[in-house]
Design a protein that fits this description.
By secondary structure, this protein is of the alpha/beta class. It contains 4 helices and 4 strands, in the order E-H-E-H-E-H-E-H. Strands 3-2-1-4 form a 4-stranded parallel beta sheet, sandwiched between helices. The relative contact order is 0.20. Helix 1 links the parallel strand 1 and strand 2 (33-38). The protein binds nicotinamide-adenine-dinucleotide (NAD). Nicotinamide-adenine-dinucleotide binds at residues 13-14, 16-20, 38-39, 66-69, 94-99.
Length: 118
Amino acid sequence: MAMNVTGKTAIVTGAGSGINLCFAIKLLDKGCNVVFADLALRPEAEAVVSKYPLTSSGAKAVFQQTDVTDWAQLDRMFAVAFEHFGGADIVCPGAGVYEPVCLLFIPRYPVLQSEQHS
Ligand SMILES: NC(=O)c1ccc[n+]([C@@H]2O[C@H](COP(=O)([O-])OP(=O)(O)OC[C@H]3O[C@@H](n4cnc5c(N)ncnc54)[C@H](O)[C@@H]3O)[C@@H](O)[C@H]2O)c1
């Protein structure tokens, strides 16, 4: 069953661009507040955050500059969710801190293939 996110709050790390921005937009569209936690926002993400101001009566967005490799900044990210929204119901740890060196996150894929053909 689909989860109703209306009136909930999500923290989305890496929401400053790409796939996490798309997820954040979906959440906002469904009435969910979103904390954008990223090193920076790309222009398209800035536009989304300004479309859902804290003064809005519906879903709200706020940007908190966050490096997810830094504990103090992660603490601050949660504190911002508490300050503005009273907490967080959803946490999406999407920041692109790990980039796979090969397709499909399967490091042994080429090795397995060569083993099968030897
Ligand atoms: N795009 C896809 O189809 C897809 C599919 C599967 C997995 N992924 C994974 O999802 C993640 C995001 O992919 P994307 O294509 O949206 O990439 P992207 O580069 O568009 O977005 C990554 C975001 O993470 C942020 N980021 C990087 N380091 C950070 C840090 N230390 N603290 C906070 N934010 C940080 C960047 O500023 C950026 O906004 C990647 O790890 C990628 O491997 C993407």
